[in-house]
Amino acid sequence: MQRARKAYGNDFSQHKSAQLMESDAGDTLQVIGAGLPRTGTTSLEAALEIRALKKGLRGYRAAVDAPTCEVYVELLAMFPNAKVILSVRDSKEQWWKSFTDTVGVQLGFIYPLLVHPVGFLLAQQRVVWAVEKHWAALTGSEIGTKVYTAHNQLVHEIVPKKQLLEFNVKEGWPRLCEFLEVPVPDVPFPNLNDAKAIKKNLFGAKVRGAGVWSLYLTLAGVSAFLLIWPPAALKRALGL
Fold this sequence. Notes:
Elements: H1 2-8, H2 12-17, E1 31-33, H3 41-50, E2 62-63, H4 72-78, E3 83-87, H5 92-101, H6 110-115, H7 119-139, H8 145-158, E4 164-167, H9 173-180, H10 195-228, H11 231-237
Parallel strand pairs: 1-2, 1-3, 3-4
Helix pairs in contact: 1-7, 5-8, 7-8
């Protein structure tokens, strides 16, 4: 509980006692994904879609991946009857490698610098910085494998056992469907790996940012040139 207060502030207890807030759509959130990014959340999302659990909160009945995994406490306070799925990897080392090979680039220096002049990419980056700050508070040290361990332990401390399922997507349908109290579908469990798509998107974001920086630098260079060499002076220098 001490880690919970450190991560979420001294008003943590208020989250637990918050009244249920109905969504505009009149539905309630049934499934909250508390697993960190790169823990099979894409496959889990696809599985929930197959089981028709993606409508509810403002049109959705389930939410997974970031930023859901960072606000599961607030969501559980809003929807106290929701089931919580903590998606996990085989080990913290496996998670960290997957994370650093993909979205972890956003925690570095070069990516934020490149995307800074692009409004919507900067807005996304600010969310990443907020998550990074939360993770640092959670572990009390530099971000790494400790994030995975501390986050998962905290989920177990906060979420009532009867409402929590720790789930590795390798387990497939049986445990998930039993937990959700739905029939096992007659299709294979989704096995999706979006690492290539993530890398492609991040590369595209860097290219877009680099293009904007190039435009800014070009305009700055032209402006500086015109200040040093006004059109009239330039014509004289060229003998025109």
